[in-house]
Amino acid sequence: MTEPKLESGNAANDDLECGEDGAHLDNATLGAFSWQKVTVTVKDHKTKQAKEILSNVNGCIKAGELLALIGPSGSGKTTLLNVLAHREATSGAKVESFILVDGTKPSLKAFQRLSSYVEQEDALIGSLTVRETLYFAACLSLPRLVRGLFLSNHILRKKKSSVTAGERTRRIDSLLGAFGLHGQAQTLIGTPVRKGISGGQKRRVSVASQLITSPKILFLDEPTSGLDSAASYEVMSFIRTVAKQHNLLVIASIHQPSTSTFKLFDKLLLLSAGKTCYYGPVHQVKPYFDGLGFPLPIMMNPAEFLLEQTNVDFARDREHACFRLGKIQDSWANSPEALAVLNQIGQRREEMEQQGFSSEEPLRSNKYLVVVTLLHRSFIKSYRDVVAYGIRFVMYTGLAIMMGTIWLRLDTSQGSIQPFINAIFFGSAFMSFMAVAYVPAFLEDRGTFIKERANGLYGATSFMITNFLIGMPYLFTIAVIFSVLSYWLANFHPTATSFLTYIMWLFIDLLAAESLVVLISSLFPNFVVSLALVAFANGLWMCVGGFLVNPTILNVFWRYVFHYIDYQTWVFQGMMVNEFAHREYSCGIGCTCMYQTDLAPKCMIAGTGVLDAYGYTQGRTAKWVGILLGIVVGYRMLGWVVLQRS
C-alpha cells in the first residue's frame, strides 16, 4: 500500500509568513497571567458537608516564566491547574475564582485561543511518526488554504488569519528542531507490537503538538510522570528553552522533581491540603523557610524537603505534623510576600483597565476539513496498526477456513439441513462475537479524541462520523474474504445472487457488532470491563437470536425485551431465507421426511418447510435490512450521546 504523502521540510515555499524558524511561537502580546481567591468546594458524601479542595489561592506569573505547582498527593495542585486552564476542576465541585489575563477577564473562547493543555498521559497514536503527529495536529487546529479560500469554522477569514501549507511545514520543522526531534521525525511513536521513541521523547512530542497553534500559555499536567530523573530534566530543559526564547508562560504541576529539574523553574507554588504554603521565586525558597525555622539541609533535594514539611499523611507524629503544617500555612497567609502578590495582581489590572482584551474567537480548521483530516489519520493508523484490523483479518480468515473445512461440501439430503442451519448460526454469531478484538483500538482512539476535544479541536460528531466511515471498507473486505473461503467450501446455495446476499448480511452483521463495541467502550472506557460486557452482550444475542431456542417457543420476556432488538436475530433470519427459500432436499431411504411440504409425494423437502418451522417469511429482506441499519444507527447515536456527555 502506498504511503500517504505528507508535507516535509522540502515542501514548496508558498507564501511563507512566519519569517524565521520558530517566529510563530513568539509572544509579543501577553504580559501576565494571574489568579485570585481560587476556592474549590465539594460535598463530602459521608458527612454531607462541604469540603474545600482549594482555599483562597492567589498567584501571578509574567511572560517568559515557568511556574511549578508542587505539593503532596491530595494537595489540590491538579485541581488548581484545571481551574486555571478553564477545565472542569472535579466532578460536582463548586468553583470560585478570579482569573485574569493581562489584568482583564477574557471569554472562554478567547482563552482557548491563548492556551494549550498537555495531559499527564501521552494520548498519542502509536502508529504515526513524529512528523505525522505534528502534521495532523496542525491540520486539526489551524485554518487552511483550500483552492484559494481560507476557511474557518464559521466564516471565511482574511489571508493573514490563515496558515498556508508552507507555513505549516515551517512550524513543524521549527518545533522538531526546538525539541530535538529532527533525528526521530520519521520514527513511529510506538505500538505494543512495534517499538518506537523513548518515554522522554514522547513527552516532548506531546508538548510540541500543543505548541503548533502558537499558544501564549502552556499548562502541563505532570510532564515528568513515569520518567527517570535524566529524562525529566531533558523534557523540562527543552520546555524551558522554548519558553524563554519565545516569551511563553508555562504552568506545570509536577511531582517531586530532582534538584536539577527543580532549579529549571522560575517560580514555585507550594500547596498542602488546598492552601498555599509558599509562592514566589525558586531561589527564595531556602531563605524563606530558614526564616520560618525550617532550615533546608545543604545536601538535600529542595522539592523533597518541602514535601516532607507539608505532608501529614505519612508522618509518625501526626499531631506534630499538623501543627507544623498549620504554622507554615498561617505564616504564608500573613506574610508580606503574600500581600505583594495581591498588590502585583491589582497593579496589573489597573495598568490594563483601559486597554481591554480581545475576545476574538479561536482560529480552528473548517469542520468538513476536520473530518477529512481525521479520515486521513485513521487510514494511516488502521493499516499500520495490526491491533485495529490486521489481527482481525487473520482471525476471520482462520475462522473461515475452519468453518469451510468442518462443514465441507454438505450435500442436499435432509441430513444436511441441520448442519446447514448450524453453519449459518456459527458464521453470523461468531463473526460478530470476534468484534471484541476492536476494543483496544477503539479505546486508543477514544483517548486521543478526549484529549483533542478538551483542546477545542473537534467534537463527538466529527469523531463518530470518522470512526464509522473508516471501518466500512475494512469490514466489507473481511466479509468478502470470509464468504469467499467459507461459502463455497460448505456448499451453501450455489448461485451468484445468494452469494452476494450472504456477503451483504455478513457485512451488516459486522457493522452492528462494531457499533456495539463503540457504544459499550464509550460507556465503560476500561479494557477489561468493555471486553467482558461486549462478550456478555454477544452471548445474550446468541441466546435470543432464534437458533438456540426457536422464536416460536421463546419465553415472552426474552422475546419482547431482547429478541427484536438483537441484530443477530435479523442476520440469522435473512441468511436462513437466503439459503432455504429456493432449495430442495431429498428425504432419504424410506421417504421419511423431517419436514412435511408439498414435495413430500416426490420424496423431497422444500426449503420453505424449514423456514415455516422457524416462523420465517420470505419477501421481507428490505424490511430486515432497514431494521438492522436502524440498530446500527441507534448504537452509533447512543455512543455519540455518551461521548458528548463524557
Automatic annotation (TrEMBL):
- What subcellular compartments does it reside in? Membrane
User: Keyword Thylakoid: yes or no?
Assistant: no
The protein's topology relative to the membrane is: Multi-pass membrane protein
Coiled-coil annotated residue ranges, if any:
none
Going by the UniProt record, its keywords in alphabetical order are: ATP-binding, Membrane, Nucleotide-binding, Transmembrane, Transmembrane helix, Transport
PROSITE patterns, from UniProt? ABC_TRANSPORTER_1, ABC_TRANSPORTER_2
Superkingdom in the source lineage: Eukaryota
Give a yes or no for keyword Transcription in this entry: no
Which terms in the Gene Ontology molecular function aspect does this entry carry?
ABC-type transporter activity; ATP binding; ATP hydrolysis activity
Q: Which residues cross the membrane?
A: 386-408, 420-443, 464-490, 502-520, 527-549, 624-643
The chain positions of domain ABC transporter read: 33-298
Q: Main location per UniProt?
A: membrane
- Gene3D superfamilies reported in the protein's UniProt record: P-loop containing nucleotide triphosphate hydrolases
- What cellular component terms from Gene Ontology apply here? membrane
The family assignment reads: Belongs to the ABC transporter superfamily. ABCG family. Eye pigment precursor importer (TC 3.A.1.204) subfamily.
PANTHER family given in the database record: ABC TRANSPORTER G FAMILY MEMBER 11
What protein am I looking at? ABC transporter domain-containing protein
**Which species is this record about?**
Glutinoglossum americanum
